Records
---
Amino acid sequence: EPEVTQTPSHQVTQMGQEVILRCVPISNHLYFYWYRQILGQKVEFLVSFYNNEISEKSEIFDDQFSVERPDGSNFTLKIRSTKLEDSAMYFCASWGTNRQFFGPGTRLTVL
Amino acid sequence: QKEVEQDPGPLSVPEGAIVSLNCTYSNSAFQYFMWYRQYSRKGPELLMYTYSSGNKEDGRFTAQVDKSSKYISLFIRDSQPSDSATYLCAMDSGGGADGLTFGKGTHLIIQP
């Protein structure tokens, strides 16, 4: 069965550094998403992406975040200047057959 | 007021018991309701998907939606130790293509 993949599985970075989290959505899906889950808290929607532009974003998705689909398969989330509170699991998802399919996540640790 | 409320548990039941998991919500625009299962440090895995009110059954799992009460449930029959996980309810108003709003998740433990 097709699945969403994410790399890396774990990323450690220093505060103030830029990070790029990568996702490969399911190939025939058209909507893509990023969510985050801070340890012990709920999964929170960040942004959705359709037709090469942002479709919807939450108040969490401020100017330090950006998304891009640089080619036909990858979907990336960039955090420009990481903060300690950005430490979380980041999940990519893609939408097809009326449901969202989630990747395994990238654990981001900001030191 | 939080949009989606879910008791975080933990909920501990003996193997073979019927499990009832619930969420309440406040946004009457929600029409699509989902239950995801999440193992520790893994991505959410879709279990059940329901549109509007009513019941849906899939094997040992039954999802119920009562839009008049803004209340959704997931029942697990003949629970197994492998069902031990965190169960997340999620919902949205736009057909599933919008960003989902999640509950905090209920940590379920099935005791052998």
Note: DSSP finds no helices and eleven strands in chain A.
---
Amino acid sequence: NFMLTQPHSVSESPGETVTISCTRNSGSIASNYVQWYQQRPGRAPSIVIYEDSRRPSGVPDRFSGSIDSSSNSASLTISGLKTEDEADYYCQSYDNSNRLFGGGTKLTVL
Amino acid sequence: QLQLQESGPGLVKPSGTLSLTCTVSDGSISSSSHYWVWIRQPPGKGLEWIGSTYYTGSAYYNPSLKSRVIISVDVSKNQFSLKLNSVTAADTAVYFCAREKWDLLRFVYFDYWGQGSLVTVSS
């Protein structure tokens, strides 16, 4: 199994752009798709990006995802930040029959 | 719209068995395109995948929990269940049931979630 490492927290101002990283410690980040989930306080997570960069219907195009093989990491970028984007964000991938989550990143919009 | 609802005791004694059921509404658990999942989240911490099951009963588990977990399906009731035995305080968490979307015989993402059920392990 591999691990996914995220920064514990990030903060940015409304209207700005923020990027959250998710680094895979072994094996290639491109080997298995990465998903991103948003979790607001007291709520269940919800998907914002799947298959590295695809957006489910209903998710604003301010949310985008990518992978970078040189750093072996995935990134979630949120542009035009709104206060409602303040939440915890989790990356997730899989390996054979296992599902793995990153430790989560708390996004503060201030 | 599909709905999932967890149910079960909110308090379990140490060394006992944690049992939860997830009831699926407005959708069939017998879908060929989905697995059914349990995920947990200790208070103030991150998400941990516990295991997933297909409607046929085929299941796979997180290796770190595999020796203590059973996930089962009851197609007639449109429910699936979690049993976690030999629990300790470290198993205190919000337990979510969710649906796992598959396409072309591979995992895509967790698309529907229950609201979560807090289970506390304490004497």
Note: Chain A has no helices and ten strands.
